[in-house]
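Query structure, 404 tokens:
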């Protein structure tokens, strides 16, 4: 069945039209607006519409997401055009409407996006730039010489970006604020992160960052250095963490439970694997729960959810996970059963144990459910007088299984 659209003489429920910062609209944009019964948009966008239009103009509800469903119900059956800035699918209303109405109920007619204009102003090829929609995630994207475009929330974002860069060891990075792109009021401010002095900027801005060459390169593969995390010793050590994450197998969009999270290192590294990876860290102690949130912010995954409470009781009501890591407390009555039951089909469970009691329990689960049972021995070279010798860490028993 052919896709129904304007070309066939019928309108979709909502046509989303991108409007340039200078008010520019092409023929296809204007034809959609002229054929509409109602045009939705922000006050600034509605004011940019050409004169002489008799179409009804309605501002977006506030708050937007809470008010949209009732507004769309009210307009059902009418030809609706929604105005957006530039490309409606770049952190825009187009994505929201598709989520609410479904892809077959929305048609997108884009304009030049602010991201495209920013790249043009900087003379940056698209394939050389990372676009960051939440400046809190910026630390995850930092690497020497890397180019990043940060979509600002408001005029305070550039100063916050400069502070994040400096705190992350990238104070020597170049920061360029591109404001009101494409409009008659377009402006540009350049500076260095460590010496940034502008406390505010025009509300509509994008921050272009060229990362300093001398900044730290933490990398995205599993196994960050232990000192990348603030911890009190309760942390899954680097080599063991890399082994666990290899079996947890982070997949874009999937959810991890990090049970008995300690410093939250497993959950943080899971989320660093891909921007859409999600995690819930469950930790009984209040001081450690606060430390997990701090580590998540420092390492660029502020969306990590922290639940303070004792497992398995604290697991009740949480969203079903695609993977679970249990770093301690596996012998707690009912914990492993609750975790296995909660896993989605194809979900991965990885459990570490250091005691004989936990090792015995994991051996029983391995015999019952299969998977992999592994003993991990790690030794590090350390001084012995004027010589060097191997210092062994406690052996770890690791059970990893996939739910059929």
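Result returned for the query:
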């Amino acid at each position: 069945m052919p896709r129904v659209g304007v070309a066939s003489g019928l309108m979709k429920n909502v046509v989303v039209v991108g409007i340039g910062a200078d008010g520019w609209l092409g023929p296809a944009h204007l034809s959609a607006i002229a054929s509409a019964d109602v045009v939705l948009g922000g006050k600034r966008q509605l004011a940019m519409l050409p004169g002489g239009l008799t179409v009804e103009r309605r501002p977006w509800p506030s708050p937007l997401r809470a008010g949209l469903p009732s507004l769309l119900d009210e307009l059902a059956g009418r030809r609706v055009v929604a105005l957006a800035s530039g490309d409606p699918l770049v952190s825009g209303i187009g994505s929201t409407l598709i989520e609410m109405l479904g892809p077959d109920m929305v048609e997108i007619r884009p304009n030049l996006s602010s991201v495209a204009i920013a790249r043009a102003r900087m003379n940056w090829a698209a394939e050389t730039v990372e676009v960051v929609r939440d400046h809190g995630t910026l630390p995850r994207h930092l690497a020497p010489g890397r180019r990043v475009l940060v979509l600002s929330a408001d005029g305070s974002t550039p100063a916050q970006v400069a502070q994040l860069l400096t705190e992350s060891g990238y104070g020597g990075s170049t920061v360029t604020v591109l404001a009101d792109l494409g409009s008659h009021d377009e402006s540009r401010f350049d500076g260095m992160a460590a010496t940034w002095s502008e406390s505010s900027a025009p509300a509509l801005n994008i921050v272009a960052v060229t990362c300093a060459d001398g900044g730290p390169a933490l990398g995205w593969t599993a196994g960050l250095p232990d000192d990348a995390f603030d911890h009190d010793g309760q942390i899954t050590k680097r080599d063991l963490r890399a082994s666990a994450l290899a079996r947890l197998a982070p997949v874009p969009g999937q959810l991890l439970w990090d049970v008995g999270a300690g410093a939250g290192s497993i959950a943080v590294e899971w989320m660093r694997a891909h921007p859409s990876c999600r995690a819930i860290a469950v930790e009984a102690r209040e001081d450690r729960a606060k430390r997990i949130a701090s580590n998540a912010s420092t390492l660029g995954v502020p969306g990590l959810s922290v639940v303070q409470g004792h497992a398995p009781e604290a697991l009740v009501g949480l969203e079903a996970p695609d993977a679970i890591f249990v770093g301690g407390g596996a012998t707690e009555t009912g914990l492993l059963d609750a975790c296995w039951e909660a896993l989605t089909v194809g979900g991965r469970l990885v459990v570490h144990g250091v005691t004989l009691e936990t090792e015995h329990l994991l051996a029983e689960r391995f015999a019952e459910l299969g998977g992999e049972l592994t003993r991990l021995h790690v030794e590090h070279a350390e001084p012995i007088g004027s010589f060097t010798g191997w210092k062994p860490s406690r052996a770890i028993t690791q059970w990893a299984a996939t739910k059929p």
